[in-house]
Amino acid sequence: MTGHPATAVPPASFGHDLLQQVVDLTVDVADVGVLARQVAALVRETLCVDVVFVFVLDDDDRQLALAGATPPFESAVGTVHLPLGEGVSGWVASRRTPVMLVDKSSDTRWRRFPQLRGEEFTSMASVPMVAATGEVVGVLNLHTEQRRDWSAADLSLLKSTAALVAGTVHTSRLLRHLDLGQQEQRALSARVVHAEEQERSRLARDLHDGVAQRIAALSFHLSAAQEALVDDPAAASQQLRRAQELLLLTAAETRSAVRALRPPLLDDLGLEASLRALARDVPGVDVHVDIDVDAASLNPVQETAFYRIAQEALHNVVKHADASAARLRLAHDGGRVLLEVSDDGRGINPGEAGDTHGMTSMRDRARLMGARLQVTGRSGEGTTVRVTLPP
C-alpha cells in the first residue's frame, strides 16, 4: 500500500468542499452503508490519509459495526464489530471524546483487530459521530502509514463531517427502531389474539365437556326423580341426591372457568390481599411480601397483569429455582410501579431465561400494560423477575 506523504496538508478550501459534498450526500443518500462508503472516500482524499473507516453503533448500543471503508478493506464491511468501550474507537464512542494519536502503538487504549491490520498504520484520528440530540451513533476513524501530526484544522473538519453524517445515521436508527417496534407490536398482537383464541377454545371445551354435560345429566336425574316421586319415593330421593352432587360439581367447574378469566380475589379482596394469599399458598418456599402501592393508582387490567406475572414468577420459583425463600415486592419507585419476585435459589445462566411459555406469557402481559420485564440472576445466586410500569 502506498501512503500519502506524512507532510501532505490539504488546502483550506478543501474543507469547505468536503463539508458541502457531505451535505449533498446526506440529502441524496438514505442508505447508511452507501453513505458511509462515500463519506470515507471523500475524507480520505480531502485529508490525504491512507485509510478511513466509518463505524456505526448497533441497535443494542453495545458494539460498533464497520459500515464503510476505503480500499483495500471494503470486504471487511459488516464483518468487524468492536465492543463499546474497548480499544480507541470504543473509548471514543463511550466517552464522546475525539482522540488524535501521532503514534497509536504507544497508546494503551489501542487494540489490534486482525481484519483491519492496524499494525501497518502509525497515526490515527478517531472522532465520535454525535447527533443533534447528543446521542453517539458511531465513530469516524482515519489512519496513516507514515507519522502524521494532526492539526486543529484536521480535528475541526472531522468533527463537522462526523456531525453531518451522524444526523443521517440517527434518522436511520430511529426509522429502524420504529419499524422494529411496529413488527414487535404486530407479533405481540398476533400472540395475544392466538392466546385469546386458545383461551376461548379451552373455555368452550371445559363448558362443553364439563358444565354442559353435567347440566344434561342433572336434567336426566331430575326427570327421573319426578317420574318416581309418586310410585317410588326412595328412588326419587336417590335421583335427587345425585342431582345435588352434580349441581355442586357444576358450580365448582363454573367458578373455575370464571377464575381463569379474572381472579375473583382481586374483586373481593383487592390486589394486596390477593398477592399475600398467593404467597401463602406457595409450597415449600417461605415468601416474604412487601407491598407499598396505592390500589387506586392501578386499573383492573394492570391489577390482573401484576397478579398473573407474580403468579407465574412464583410458580417458576417452585418449579425451577430449588429455593428456600423468596420475596415479592410491589411498590412505587419514583413515580413508577415496580414488581419484583426474587429468590435465593440456584439462579440462571446467561441465555437461560429464554422464550419459554411462561416467560413469553409474563413478557406479553407486561408489554400489554406498557411495562418492561427483566429477568436477572447468576448461577448459585438466585433470580429476580422485575416489572417496571412507567408513570
User: What structural class do the secondary elements suggest?
Assistant: alpha+beta
- Would you identify the CATH H-level superfamily of the largest domain? GAF domain
Mind telling me the CATH class of the largest domain? Alpha Beta
The name of the CATH architecture of the largest domain is 2-Layer Sandwich
The tally of domains stands at 3
What does this entry look like structurally?
With 391 residues, the protein is of the alpha+beta class. The protein folds into three domains: 170 residues, Beta-Lactamase (2-Layer Sandwich), CATH 3.30.450.40; 80 residues; 125 residues, Histidine kinase-like ATPase, C-terminal domain (Heat Shock Protein 90), CATH 3.30.565. It has nine helices and eleven strands. The chain has a six-stranded antiparallel beta sheet. Strands 7-8-9-11-10 form a five-stranded mixed beta sheet. β5 and β6 form a beta hairpin. α1 packs antiparallel against α2 and α2 packs antiparallel against α4. It is elongated, with a radius of gyration of 33 Å. The mean pLDDT is 79.
